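SEQUENCE WITH STRUCTURE:
===
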Amino acid sequence: MSGRTTKPLIDPFGRTVRDLRISVTDRCNFRCTYCMPEEGMQWLDRSELLSFEEIERVARVCVERFDFDGIRLTGGEPTVRAQLPVLVEMLAALRVPATGRAVDLAMTTNGATLGLLAGELRRAGLNRINVSCDSLRPERFAQMARRDQLARVLDGIEAALAAGFSPVKVNVVMMRGVNDDEAVDFATFGRERRVQPRFIEFMPLDADGGWTMDQVVPADETVAAIDAVYPLEPVAHGPEPAARYRYRDGGGEIGVIPSVTRPFCGDCDRVRITAEGKFRTCLFALDEHDLRAVLRNGGSDGDLALAIEAAVGTKWAGHHIGQVSFVRPPRSMSQIGG
């Protein structure tokens, strides 16, 4: 980095971009109804996936050229990518020029194999972890994930706690008529286990294209249901998507992500790359920018930085969910990276 100055990466609406989401695989060992179809997925060939070295290079350019300070690994399910702790160690070595600190390295996982990996991931340098779990009832969990794996997910949460991750966040996609009666159950679970539930509004990225607005459980409704049992108060927060609330009795926190009813697009500081190296400026973006071509056709770090900067120059104001102008992306959540 000597002799090179960094500059903030600012999109056309004045938002400074500093958070990178990296999908390491399109494969998953679950088939969650809001994410992917039960059958018929066409997986990427291994040669199409970015290698760990290519992923590290994209991340390094974002960190060293543009002062990115947050990286989150996603999938599919990231833990099905072989040797994942090796990649974590590579990314954990990155330092943000503006502060000299390591990047904040996080991962979202379904938790099913976390019991085997939590300690190794922590030792490799992973800072934070989110475990997706949409029901605490085994039969309902199996219907939503299309896999009877709740016990293994709960074991994974315990393994993350034992490995020293703090806080452990539990992502819950709330769906009307499916699991909207479990908000208080998850709050109780969080208070007892000292984990933080994060309730996410159902978004139109289901593989079957069946999303409708009446399936969305508004975040305010979830907060009200919990507040009636465990009184809450809001917590001030920055550009992260979750609105946070703490229990007035000191029993921990919850978060809600109101992507549909109260979009946080105006503060969005994130971009993402798919498992095959397509750069996306929004989860709902209709356009993708091919970084793999730059990586594999002899492009320099400078070329990569220019491609990233040009892509961010196309970032839009917001996704328009629920409006007449909304256009659904052609890919499902599992193919984009959550």
User: Anything to note?
Assistant: The domain at 9-336 is CATH 3.20.20.70 (TIM Barrel). The chain is about 30% helix and 20% strand. The CA atoms of residues 119 and 163 lie 5 Å apart. The chain has a mean pLDDT of 88.
